């Protein structure tokens, strides 16, 4: 029975079946097959004080049943502890994955707002909490492209879902502007942000995005501005609008 109770990873119901089987086997011997041994008065236990105690079959039955119940309770407690420990480890693993996912999302969000080397500066653990960041650039070209008559188009009516459809069209226009930046010719340009119907981009912010000899980043920005105008004309043609662009 003791050796059965030692195994922590055994299910409590299996332990119960084994303990009951062992208990029944011993009880059958005590009560039936070898019951005469317990009626023999020569079978004594010598106590420490010199006294004597007869081993009664009923005491043996009580001990066997007591061991069975005690070991089964111990098995249930061990199993409950193991399950709880497993659930805690599983919860800790899920929380760790969630934190890592959140950190990756935050890094991606910061990378969308700031240049990569600036984001790495602010994410660094070596900098002081109140340390500001500054960088001097020799040749930078900045572009603001806005749709001045978008406010006339934006109307909050029930037919356009309280203006949501208007914002959806603006989002598609900005997404088209972003897609143009994936072309190889516009590798010098980096989107800074979009505020309302205004789109801001810059070229020459980093060493890899500036050409101080031929000023290719400046000509790329000029070409990009022309492409934005062409793209907006394409949008007007397919959405039956008359958006203007100011760059």
TrEMBL record:
It catalyses: ATP = 3',5'-cyclic AMP + diphosphate. Keywords: ATP-binding, Lyase, Magnesium, Membrane, Metal-binding, Nucleotide-binding, Transmembrane, Transmembrane helix. Signal peptide: none annotated. One of its GO terms (biological process) is cyclic nucleotide biosynthetic process. GO terms for molecular function: adenylate cyclase activity; ATP binding; metal ion binding. It comes from the Eukaryota. It holds the Pfam family Guanylate_cyc. SUPFAM superfamilies: Nucleotide cyclase (SSF55073). Its EC number is 4.6.1.1. The chain crosses the membrane at residues 12-34, 54-73. It is an enzyme of class 4 (lyase). It is found in: Membrane. GO terms for cellular component: plasma membrane. InterPro entries: A/G_cyclase (IPR001054), Nucleotide_cyclase (IPR029787). Residues 141-247 form the Guanylate cyclase domain. This is adenylate cyclase.
């Amino acid at each position: 029975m003791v050796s059965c109770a030692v195994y922590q990873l055994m299910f409590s119901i299996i332990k119960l079946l084994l303990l009951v089987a062992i208990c029944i086997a011993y009880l059958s011997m005590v009560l039936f097959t070898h019951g005469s041994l317990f009626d023999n008065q020569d079978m004594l236990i010598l106590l420490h004080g010199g006294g004597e105690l007869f081993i009664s079959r009923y005491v043996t039955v009580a001990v066997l049943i007591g061991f069975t119940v005690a070991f089964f309770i111990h098995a249930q407690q061990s199993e409950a502890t193991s399950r709880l420990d497993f659930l805690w480890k599983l919860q800790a693993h899920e929380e760790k994955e969630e934190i890592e996912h959140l950190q990756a999302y935050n890094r991606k969000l910061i990378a969308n707002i700031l240049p990569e080397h600036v984001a790495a500066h602010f994410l660094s653990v070596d900098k002081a909490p109140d340390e500001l960041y500054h960088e001097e650039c020799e040749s930078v070209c900045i572009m603001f492209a806005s749709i001045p008559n978008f406010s006339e188009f934006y109307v909050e009516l029930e037919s356009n879902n309280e203006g949501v459809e208007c914002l959806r069209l603006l989002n598609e226009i900005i997404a088209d502007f972003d897609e143009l930046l994936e072309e190889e010719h516009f590798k010098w340009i980096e989107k800074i942000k979009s505020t309302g119907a205004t789109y801001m981009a810059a070229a020459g912010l980093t060493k890899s995005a500036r050409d101080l000899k031929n000023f290719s980043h400046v000509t790329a920005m000029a070409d990009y501005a022309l492409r934005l105008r062409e793209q907006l004309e394409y949008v007007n043609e397919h959405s039956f609008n008359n958006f203007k662009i100011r760059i």
